[in-house]
Amino acid sequence: MSLTKSERRQRIKFRIRKIVNGTAAKPRLSVFRSNKEIYVQLIDDVNGVTLLAASSRDKGFDTKGTAIEVAAAVGKVVAEKAQKAGITEVTFDRGGNLYHGRIKSLAEGAREAGLKF
């Protein structure tokens, strides 16, 4: 019997989380993608704290354009917030999603805005 799509994604997610950890100096950039929106958090796993977050649902955020363009804009916003907080390096946690489409666009947008990972 094969795995369902959600079970397969959950296995991938656990496999990634065994390796990827965040600290205060180098937090984990965690991505959650729903069908309509995209959410990003910078997490310090040592203290169990979310340092900052951004999403396509934030007030004042322009959601015009394709989903890929919106994801790139969210990546730029989270990178700018991180720069203001003094964070330059992060570890990337794609949350079990494949690295293409909106996830790739978000990562490239964050890199363009100055985050290193």
UniProtKB/TrEMBL annotation:
It holds the Pfam family Ribosomal_L18p. InterPro entries: Ribosomal_L18 (IPR057268), Ribosomal_uL18_bac-type (IPR004389), Ribosomal_uL18_bac/plant/anim (IPR005484). This is one of the proteins that bind and probably mediate the attachment of the 5S RNA into the large ribosomal subunit, where it forms part of the central protuberance. Belongs to the universal ribosomal protein uL18 family. HAMAP family: Ribosomal_uL18_B. GO terms for cellular component: cytosolic large ribosomal subunit. GO terms for molecular function: 5S rRNA binding; structural constituent of ribosome. This is Large ribosomal subunit protein uL18. Part of the 50S ribosomal subunit; part of the 5S rRNA/L5/L18/L25 subcomplex. Contacts the 5S and 23S rRNAs. The keyword rRNA-binding applies. SUPFAM superfamilies: Translational machinery components. The gene is rplR. Keywords: Ribonucleoprotein, Ribosomal protein, RNA-binding, rRNA-binding.
